[in-house]
Amino acid sequence: MDQAQRLREMVSGKVKKRKKVPVLKKENNTANRPEIITITSGKGGVGKSNTCVNLAFAMASTSKRVLIIDVDIGLGNTDLLLGVYPSYSLLEYLKGKCSLEQAIMRVSEKVDIIAGGELAKDDFLLSSKERDVISTDITELKLYDYIIFDTGAGISSNISYFCQSADRVLVLTTPEPTAITDAYALMKSLYRKSKDLEIQIIVNKVISVQEGYETANKLITVSQKFLLAKPTYLGYIFEDSSVTKAVRKQVPYIKEYPASSSSKSVYQLAASITGSKVINSKTPLGFLSALFKR
Ligand SMILES: Nc1ncnc2c1ncn2[C@@H]1O[C@H](COP(=O)(O)OP(=O)(O)OP(=O)(O)O)[C@@H](O)[C@H]1O
Ligand SMILES: [Mg+2]
Question: Which residues are the signal sequence here (predicted)?
Fold first, then answer.
């Protein structure tokens, strides 16, 4: 059974009705605001957090100010990848134990992070009140060119919320068939809620440029055919032992191994993003970021 057939069967299956995810109120916005980027994937462990951290540093090297928010609440490990140990987290902020400003930790001159925090249980569904709390305090942050949400994997209502709220959604996959089918399932779910989403595909752990194109092309082709949606291909990151070495050292690979193949790929991705700012006025956080004016 080839990949396309598997995908065709997936879309021809019975579609379960999903609960509508409440999102924030849409308002007018302007182009002079931070872009909100959500990094997500269907399958876990495909490299979202590493990509998030390294993209942030690559974007910062072009003088952009970036805030990473780990919204894999309770399970996130973005802070560990950076070797930092924030005193507070998004979770503590949501529980009223600190302000959003206290939860923000400076990692480098142009990169800040809000960690996800730790939870005893493994699921944390944001209540509408907590979403309101996030939106209220986020409006006070006026400093950033980009805010990147690093999500967990799959199709939870939290993840859906952060995707629907973003200007640009980066869906990560690897060339493995299991990662591709899960990415497709995620995209199907996201597009069902909003056809206007700006979804861009990143293929991580490729062994050739061609493999990146072919993987993205499978997803683009089935999305166009069966979902009538048009995701685009942002680029690839090479499979590279520098990534794992840097993870062990708890430093971004673009800092530790700037000449590695993975670093070069990430700089290219960063250039594509910073060269084409996406302001999606149809997303709910659009109205928030209008208030971020610098
Ligand atoms: N380009 C790459 N080359 C080699 N190994 C990689 C690459 N990208 C990621 N990895 C490996 O994959 C592991 C998982 O990466 P990461 O934690 O970023 O995934 P994730 O998608 O954030 O996972 P989760 O779904 O649990 O949040 C890393 O520890 C790293 O060893
Ligand atoms: Mg992660």
Answer: none
Task: Specify the number of domains making up the chain.
Answer: 1
Check residue 27 and give its pLDDT.
Answer: 35
CB of 223 shorter than 6 A to ligand 1: no
What integer is the mean pLDDT of 126-149? Answer: 79
Question: Which tokens belong to 164?
Answer: 């629907």
CA 187 to ligand 1 center in whole angstroms: 20
- Give the per-residue pLDDT at 172: 98
Is residue 50 in contact with ligand 1, taking CB distance under 6 Å? yes
**CB distance 288 to 24 below 8 Å:** yes
CA of 99 to the centre of ligand 1 (A): 30
Beta bridge partners of 172: 41, 202
Q: Is residue 4 part of a domain?
A: no
Q: What angle do CA 146, 148, 151 make, to 5 degrees?
A: 170
In a domain, 15, yes or no: no
**CATH code, domain with 79:** 3.40.50.300
Model confidence over 265-274: pLDDT tens digits? 999 999 999 9
Name the residue of 122, 205, 243 whose CB sits within 8 Å of the most ligand 1 atoms, as the mutation to test its pocket: 243
7 or 135: which leads in pLDDT:
135
Taking the C-alpha atoms of residue 280 and residue 236, their distance in angstroms, rounded to an integer, is: 24
Say yes or no to pLDDT of 3 above 50.
no
Q: What's the gap in Å between 45 CA and the centre of ligand 1?
A: 5
- pLDDT at res. 121: 67
Q: What is the mean pLDDT of residues 85-91?
A: 92
Within a domain: residue 173? Answer: yes
Query: Cα of 24 to ligand 2 centre, how many Å?
Result: 25
Q: Does 17 fall in a domain?
A: no
Neighbour-count burial of 3, counting CB atoms closer than 10 A to its CB (0-12 exposed, 13-18 middle, 19+ buried): middle
Residue 20 scores a pLDDT above 80: no
The domain of 86 spans 26-290
Separation between Cα atoms, residue 186 and residue 255, nearest integer Å = 32
